[in-house]
Design goal:
This protein is of the alpha/beta class and about 600 residues long. It folds into three domains: about 240 residues, Glutamine Phosphoribosylpyrophosphate, subunit 1, domain 1 (4-Layer Sandwich); about 190 residues, Glucose-6-phosphate isomerase like protein, domain 1 (Rossmann fold, 3-Layer(aba) Sandwich); about 140 residues, Rossmann fold. It is built from 19 helices and 25 strands. The strands form four sheets. The protein has an eight-stranded antiparallel sheet. A seven-stranded antiparallel sheet has the order 5-6-7-8-12-13-14. Helix 3 crosses helix 4, helix 4 packs across helix 5 and helix 9 packs antiparallel against helix 17. The structure holds 5-amino-5-deoxy-1-O-phosphono-D-mannitol. The site of 5-amino-5-deoxy-1-O-phosphono-D-mannitol (M6R) has 17 residues, from helix 9 and helix 17.
Length: about 600
């Protein structure tokens, strides 16, 4: 939520910052702003709307500099208005601040600043207090003023600061919100995420919690909370700049749907040995540890939670350990049975989701072994976990998650198979047979990608529907949840997923003539039951789009339209089955003229509770 970029060097700060902000727009996009040092002043331009609006507001060629900071916002405190947009300044306009996160004690600080220092606030934001704090503490040393301001602040923040008195210095601080520093030649950068910097640098420092980083054009110095200098290893980014670009696709979401065979292959190749064994580097679970676990909790939000639901099926089936799956925002507020025989698995694409992070901390405090399944390398969830399973999906930019989800599923399967074979629940032959099937999935997904036009035609016929139900049984039920979330978040259609067997306990009351029902029917042993559920909704006039395995032609007599996925072992159908649903959501949203990559009210990385 919110993206920040900062630059110091000899190039055009305006160009570099605005370009970086465009790459971070997925983090928030209700307003944007930039602050540049020009002729002894820090000059701010900011406005509501997208970065393209900011480009116009900052178009004046005279408005440029060698140093500056920029921000793209997802509003928390105060409506998305020009005034509330970042950067925020102190009264004299000598300090400008961009901020991602929330200052929890901002009301107290605001009161104190007004009362003791006579400060008048112009915005409704929590961020403005930071600028004033730095302003009142400034005594010729920006770094010192930032340290003193930060001492007063509670909450989560990544901030970037520039000051008109020190035009050759940029200061940034991280606590619970992501921050990286990019190492250039004769220039340096800060950003919330790697894509913002990919055009310029491949070498970065991952800034840790409670660290302050001071950048000049030639040096980056990192300090801990005690103001001691700390050394940090350089992190080499392996993605190329193109992986964070649309590469000719109309939207990032479409590109990321198409990325899936490659992404899944990468996840598998990094973990599977040629003899079928699973290599879990970054994970130090011994056979003894696995045998000792009495239960597993999988905790996540949104799409990652849906991946957790499949993880439950996989771990219970292959490793025979009871699993509970919970949404992170609920987990931490109940009394979960977590102890030192619990394996706690956090799933998160961004690794910065605050609810997931808070649940992880809660589980850790209760003695659990914490393993995370994460996409963003070096993110908070990864760093606070005992073991990390990186999904290696590459950057996912669209707010609607696609390739992160399918690689999370692959990761959960690999983990379950590894635990199962270590525990002796699976023989090496059984494990090899299952891993061989996983290896075949990228080719099957490639086949499904060829259905793009067919699914587009179905979407064209149905995009005006105002209500949709997704139904399924077993793993198909979990896939229904994901299909439904995908559709609602980008098309704004009221869509709802329900276990097919639950329909008759209430939801079927809403099914009437022409109600659209998407029915997942990929599970052999549940097929007959699913068929009955399809007949039940058909009998009430529903229009049924079914998803089934290729060899199962029986549905043609019952559904209005059937989308076929290649035949596959029932355990693994969630991966191919979700792809048509991703396409469906995408095309429906496109026909409805929605802003697919940046749906309203949402952000890619949800760093507030
Ligand atoms: O970064 P995370 O995986 O922790 O994010 C969790 C959810 O916010 C995320 O999956 C969200 O539901 C997506 N917009 C779904 O497409």
């Amino acid at each position: 939520m919110c993206g920040i970029v900062g630059y110091i060097g000899n190039g055009s700060a305006k160009e570099i910052i605005i370009d970086g902000l465009k790459k971070l727009e997925y983090r928030g996009y209700d307003s944007a702003g930039i602050a540049l040092y020009i002729d002894g002043e820090v000059q701010v331009r900011k406005c509501t709307g997208r970065i393209s609006n900011l480009e116009l507001a900052a178009a004046d060629p005279e408005y440029d500099s060698h140093i500056g900071i920029g921000h793209t916002r997802w509003a928390t405190h105060g409506a998305p208005t020009d005034v509330n947009a970042h950067p925020h300044s102190n009264t004299e306009g000598t300090v400008a601040v961009v901020h991602n996160g929330i200052i929890e004690n901002y009301a107290e600080l605001k009161q104190w600043l007004s009362k003791e220092h006579g400060i008048r606030f112009v915005s409704e934001t929590d961020t403005e207090v930071i600028a004033h704090l730095i302003g009142i503490y400034y005594d010729g040393d920006l770094t010192d003023a930032v340290f003193r301001a930060v001492d007063m602040m509670r909450g989560s923040y990544a901030i970037g600061v520039v000051c008109s008195h020190e035009p050759d210095k940029l200061v940034a601080v991280r606590k619970d919100s992501p921050l990286i520093a990019g190492i250039g030649k004769g220039c340096n950068f800060i950003a919330s995420d790697i894509p913002a910097l990919l055009k310029h640098v491949r070498e970065i420092y991952l800034i840790e919690n409670n660290e302050t980083v001071v950048l000049t054009k030639d040096h980056i110095t990192i300090y801990n909370q005690n103001r001691e200098e700390v050394k940090r290893d350089v992190f080499h980014v392996t993605w190329d700049a193109a992986s964070a670009e649309k590469e000719g696709y109309e939207h990032f979401m479409l590109k990321e749907i198409y990325d899936q065979p490659k992404a899944i292959e990468e996840t598998l190749n990094r973990r599977l040995l040629p003899d079928g064994r699973i290599r879990l580097d970054g994970i130090n679970l011994t056979r003894e540890d696995i045998e000792n676990f009495s239960r597993v909790y999988i905790v996540a939000c949104g799409t990652a939670y849906h991946a957790g639901l499949i993880g439950k099926y996989a771990i219970e089936k292959f490793a025979q350990i009871p699993v509970e799956v919970d949404v992170a925002s609920e987990f931490r507020y109940r009394e979960p049975f977590v102890d030192d025989r619990t394996l706690f698995i956090a799933i998160s694409q961004s690794g910065e989701t605050l609810d997931t992070l808070a649940a992880l901390r809660e589980a850790k405090a209760r003695g659990a072994r914490v393993l995370s399944v994460v996409n963003v390398v070096g993110s908070s969830v990864a760093r606070e976990s005992d073991d990390v399973f990186y999904t290696w999906a590459g950057p996912e930019i669209a707010v609607a998650s696609t390739k992160a989800y399918t690689t999370q599923l692959i990761s959960m399967y690999l983990l379950a198979l590894h635990m199962g074979s270590e525990k002796g629940c699976l023989t090496p032959e059984q494990r090899n047979e299952l891993t061989a099937e996983l290896m075949g999935l990228p080719a099957k997904i490639s086949q499904i990608l060829k259905l793009d036009a067919e699914i587009e035609a179905i979407a064209k016929q149905l995009y005006m529907k105002t209500q949709v139900f997704f139904i399924g049984r077993g793993t198909d039920c979990a896939v229904s949840y994901e299909g439904s979330l995908k559709l609602k978040e980008i098309s704004y259609i009221n869509s709802f997923a329900v276990a097919a067997g639950e329909l008759k306990h209430g939801t079927i009351a809403l099914v009437e003539q022409d109600t659209l029902v998407v029915a997942l029917a990929t599970q052999g042993k549940l097929f007959k039951k699913m068929l009955s559920n399809i007949q039940e909704v058909k009998a009430r006039g529903a229009y049924v789009v079914a998803v089934a395995q290729e060899s199962c032609k029986q549905l043609e007599a019952h559904a209005d339209c059937v989308i076929y996925i290649p035949d596959c072992r029932d355990e693994f159908t969630p991966i191919p089955a979700v792809v048509p649903l991703q396409f469906f959501a995408y095309h429906v949203a496109r026909f409805r003229g929605c802003d697919i990559d940046k749906p309203k009210n949402l952000a890619k990385s949800v760093t507030v509770e």
